[in-house]
What we know:
The complex is a heterodimer of chains A (446) and B (236). By secondary structure, chain A is mainly alpha-helical.
Amino acid sequence: xxxNETYVSKDPFDEKIEQLSPADREKALxxxxxxxxxxxxxxxxxxxxxxxxADSCHYYLTHQDIQSLPAYKLGLxxxxxxxxFSFMGKNMPxxxxxxxxxxxxxxxxxxxLYGRCSLCGxxxxxxxxxxxxxxxxxxxxxxxxxxxxxxxGLQSTIETAVEKGNNMGIxxxxxxxxxxxxxxxxxxxxxxxxxxxxxxxxxxxYFYTINPREAMFFPLSISAVAKLFHAAGESWTLxxxxxDVTNYGLYSGDDETAGMLSDRLVxxxxxxxxxTLVLAECGHGFKSNRWEAPEWLxxxxxxxxxxxxxxxxxxxxxxxxxxxxxxxxxxxxxxxPCNLVRMGGIIEEQRFILRHAVSQFIEMxxxxxxxxxxxxxxxxxxxxxxxxxxxxxxxxxxxQIRKTGAKxxxxxxxxxxxxxxxxxxxxxxxxxxxxxxxxxxxxxxx
Amino acid sequence: MLTFxxxxxxxxxxxxxxxxxxxxxxxxSHEKKxxxxxxxxxxxxxxxxxxxxxxxxxxKESARNHLPTYIGGIFYHIGIFISLLYLLIVxxxxxxxxxxxLPVRVLSLAGAIAGLALLAKRIFSPxxxxxxxxxxxxxxxxVDIFLILSFLHTLLPxxxxxxxxxxxxxxxxxxxxxxxxxxxxxxRHCFFFFYVRILFGIFYGRRxxxxxxxxxxxxxxxxxxxxxxxxxALVP
Lengths: 446, 236
């Protein structure tokens, strides 16, 4: 290189987009076409561009730019549908807002559909027609995934899960050692040598899965659940191999990989002969394995799939565990993870548990299915190139938390925990972030 | 001339009906998504919610925060349906009593005003402009003209004077344009709206998202608070 020339380093991902060939784009369009089912085709003909979804999106509320507006993001997807699959779009594209799928559009898809959306579905709930915007954006992500355009951080998380069996790349020996160490800690804590963290126990009633982040960074979440199972005298097990509840294929839009990851839990269930698959406190893990995996795998499950919250709430209702709310004196608020609540239907269980476990429970406004996303979903935590946007978008949640005056934010989701921890620091909220089961375990009367 | 125009409206309507039916058939030719996950809630309750409470401003934040647009939208669509019925009555040359004409007149005028207000919003709001394509403006203008002409037609004395008033001819001409445009542009959403609401209801209903909506602890209190917020929003 001539020394007078300025070397400008290009982002390899952007370069990849610029170098896309017509054949690559055609492949993406083919995958996009394959994803168009009856439901999607109806949605594509229904958006009236009313713009009323704007305020429902935490990205739009915090950024106030048109690119963050849900109808605009959806328009990028519908524009492609119109251009290649509709009569008017083919013949009068400018008139109906049809758009060519060129490299510039691909770049805008990546930026908007991956970088300005956490697939929280709040816009869908507020759409004046009722379009499932999140589902359409995910389908479009899937077309990008088909040509290798999943942002690097998200893709590497998926690859780690595929290759190593869990998304943190934890080795089997390390996992078994962690579980064994946690078991010893539990026995010491409750002074009961009979307390167990069972591993690969055949015919146990509950097959419990975890988010690998728990094993790596939040082992107390695992101990808390073990303590609750032990107190209830329940038959349960962890698995040495298939234990990862997460599924980032949900976020990349790659149904095949997503199905393969979820199928590992199905295989684990079959191997151990357990009755119920119990999903840890993980929003997207719940949505993936409870609602989406049977569709990805095109089969009905022959077993029950439950959230750990349903199980613990059941223990309380049946009087199998006793909680003393006086053990958690600080005011607690609850963040509802979108994938668990709005998309998953687990709404009252966490409230029921918290009312038994803490002295002061303060609801955020709005809450339940209408709650705002924290900004950590949609794979945002893994896509570092969009992290500044993610933090800014989390401003809505930070304000919600501040208004409650709570000292503890409970949330049944490890992605949400990571985002809330960052928001806590960034917006100086001065709160502690805990899972619901951690609070329940703290309140346990043994 | 009148017979020719009436015939034109009928042909345009049939064109619209056939084209939209073809569009629906084409849409329905796509594979139906098979739902394998065991339901947690009742899809029927979801559909009831989707067509009832789920459209109310105290339940839906987007409606509550944009009340003028929401109310305008309601009047606009009521005006359109009433004007379509009125068009049928005019074509069939049925004489309506004055007591019936009056609400038609009021609702078609209200619909026209609402339509023009929504058009103004689309033109003057930078966000709405950025979201819109020519089809959005065209669809609105075509329907607005039809509503205005329907309103003007209701002002004519009954029975219709001879020769045929120009308003009648223009009403028929606007109906022809509207019916011809319907399958080509966004007006087609009228055919899909109800199906989308059903899909919405099934999605959330199966997952048990709305079944708890009324019965959760404090839910009614939350609803009342939302209703009060809605009432407060009505006060300038």
